[in-house]
Input
Amino acid sequence: MRQLRHFGDFVTVPLAIVLFVGLAGAYHLHLVVAGVVAWTLLEYLVHRFAFHHYSSVARRLHQLHHDHPNDPDAERSSLSTPLIASPTGFLLIVTAGLEDGSAIFAGLLLGYLAFIVVHYAVHRWPIEPNSWLYSAKIRHLTHHRFENCNYGVTTSFWDIVFRTNARIIGERIRAGVG
Output
């Protein structure tokens, strides 16, 4: 059960992406890209506000991850993904139609998949300085150290836009942060 809880998303989310891209059709790939972009903003906003600023169950659960960043039991659970994703997909399909809603939802899921892969990698994989993931690892470990910056995991774009990038807000980054 523990393996399912931790790694289920790495199987179910790609399958759901394939399903919803199939429902959307090839002519809606621009909406898949729009969904990925929307994910990056949603990831930033939820992480910054729901997980760090407002008192909530989400904040308390996220604090467990900050207190024990290498403990897989302190991370999100694959069992919660359908509880959040299903209503979102349903609302998108009802409001935007089957093809457009499926395309946007597939993009959101693709962004989420990128997030869980990058987050897993920065906490679990040995990442060398010449790797494309190295900057993501340093950025995320800096977030764990200071908590008031670098809310984006998959991209630093929104941190730059909203001036919460560690370099912009003046925090000093050392090579061995984390």
